[in-house]
Amino acid sequence: MRSSGSGRNSGRGNHRGAGNNRDERQGQGRPRKPRPEERRYDVGPGATQDGPKSGRGGAARGGAKGGPKQTQQRGGRTAPGRSREYEARAEERNRERYAGKKDIKLPKTFPGAEQEGERLQKVLARAGYGSRRACEELIEQARVEVNGEIVLEQGRRVDPEKDEVKVDGLTVATQSYQFFSLNKPAGVVSTMEDPEGRQCLGDYVTNRETRLFHVGRLDTETEGVILLTNHGELAHRLTHPKYGVKKTYLAAIVGPIPRDLGKRLKDGIQLEDGYARADHFRVVEQTGKNYLVEVTLHEGRKHIVRRMLAEAGFPVEKLVRTSFGPITLGDQKSGWLRRLSNTEVGMLMKEVDL
Fold first, then answer.
1. Radius of gyration for the chain, computed over Cα atoms and rounded to the nearest angstrom
2. Is residue 261 predicted with pLDDT exceeding 70?
3. Which residue of 2, 41, 94, 342 sits 20 to 30 Å from the alpha carbon of 28, by its own alpha carbon?
4. Rounded mean pLDDT, 263-271
5. Which residues are catalytic?
6. For the segment 215-247, what is each residue's pLDDT rounded down to a tens digit?
7. Cα Dmax for the chain
8. What letters, b where the CB count within 10 A reaches 16 and e where it falls short, cover 255-270?
9. What residues are paired with 252 via a beta bridge?
10. Integer Cα distance of 347 and 326 in angstroms
11. Are 162 and 116 spatial neighbours (Cβ–Cβ below 8 Å)?
């Protein structure tokens, strides 16, 4: 039994020896590459043939350069990671999957995205409330509100087309609207164009880029305030009887006039198209038989002031409209056009609930 065991051992040894001889013969030529099971992937202390346990650099993270990466599995065993060929094929499939598709639009809430609307101070500055710093001070003083809410923080964004912005309770015209007051001279036709070639309102705004239109009308021989704008809704409301915007006129008549003339005008004068009533009447100046009287009314019928005074027995020699709602003539010269201030525009809008 021993001799047979020793024979087996000797045979095993001879077999190993033969393998070693082959290795030696191969080593005499070009060096052969070690088989995968013979490679050692770590040189640190405690390293074994099974894989790395400690060490530095790439060996500690999965093997020496060129060796297969290993991933930890349950039970402490290791398994080879995905090969480079597999990764390359996966990347190619992903490129093919998304090739030709449009760029994905990121949501507007991600950091750095452009926010909608314009900064409030910029809108106010464009509307004519001063520099941006001055508009920031308006916000700091709690004088600005957006959609009925007082704004206290800087940088608030608004939509000029939709949001309602007010300063000191007056609406701000945030869009590209224009508002003018013209002291119309006598003899000028209240149209923007005249086919007969007469002087008209359009002659005073020929250099404007935006098309303007007049708010209401004045008789050709009547002087005074007439408004020009490109704000259609405001113009419509200012002339609508529902809102009753008051207009004030100075009329030159010849007296003597009775003391009850004002009462008669306020009670109503019967005209061919119905009663016409004045809201206010007073004598401004008297020089002999010449009187300058002030008449205020909210109606806008054609020639209404002239017809009322003529029906009362006092034909008008000269008529001037001195105010249209909150817009007054002041010292504005005949034929002069002036841009309305932001406060005046706000008062006009407040007059008609805009």
1. 47
2. yes
3. 41
4. 92
5. 219
6. 989 999 999 999 999 888 888 999 998 999 999
7. 164
8. eebeeebbebbeeebe
9. 292, 318
10. 7
11. no
| CA–CA gap between residue 319 and residue 224 (Å, rounded) | 8
Rounded CA separation 348/173 (Å):
11
Instruction: Kindly report the number of other CB atoms within 10 A of residue 250's CB atom.
Output: 19
- Which position has the token pair 């309102």? 201
User: Amino acid identity of 192?
Assistant: M
CB of 324 closer than 8 Å to CB of 215: yes
Tokens of 345: 């525009």
Q: Can you give the pTM of this predicted structure?
A: 0.58
In tens, the pLDDT along 122-140 reads: 888 877 777 888 888 889 8
Q: What is the mean pLDDT of residues 252-266?
A: 92
Least Cα distance to 298 among 271, 331, 268, 276 occurs for 276
Q: How many CB atoms lie within 10 A of CB 319?
A: 22
Is residue 108 over pLDDT 50?
A: no
d(CA 200, CA 203): 6
Per the structure block, which two tokens stand in for 177? Answer: 């609207």
Q: 3-state SS string over 240-280?
A: CCCCCCCEEEEEEEECCCCCCHHHHHHHCEEECCEEECCCE
Give the β-pairing of 318-324 and 149-150. unpaired
8 Å CB contact between 235 and 177 = no
What is the rounded distance in angstroms from the CA atom of residue 33 to the CA atom of residue 213? Answer: 95
Burial, 192: exposed, middle or buried (Cβ in 10 Å; 0-12, 13-18, 19+)?
middle
Are the beta carbons of 293 and 284 closer than 8 angstroms? yes
For the record, the structure tokens of 42 come out as: 């770590």
Distance in angstroms (rounded) separating the CA atoms of residues 332 and 343: 18
What is the per-residue pLDDT across 76-107, written as a single tens digit (0 to 9) for each?
555 556 677 777 888 787 777 666 555 545 44
Q: How far apart are alpha carbons 187 and 194 in whole angstroms?
A: 13
| Segment 3-12 mean pLDDT | 45
Average pLDDT over residues 321-336: 93
pLDDT for position 200: 92
Q: Tell me, rounded to whole angstroms, the distance of Cα 157 from its chain centroid.
A: 7
- Amino acid letter, 263: K
Query: In the structure encoding, which two tokens stand for residue 156, read together?
Result: 């608030």
Rounded CA gap, 266 and 190, in Å?
A: 28
What kind and span of H or E run contains 165? strand 165-167
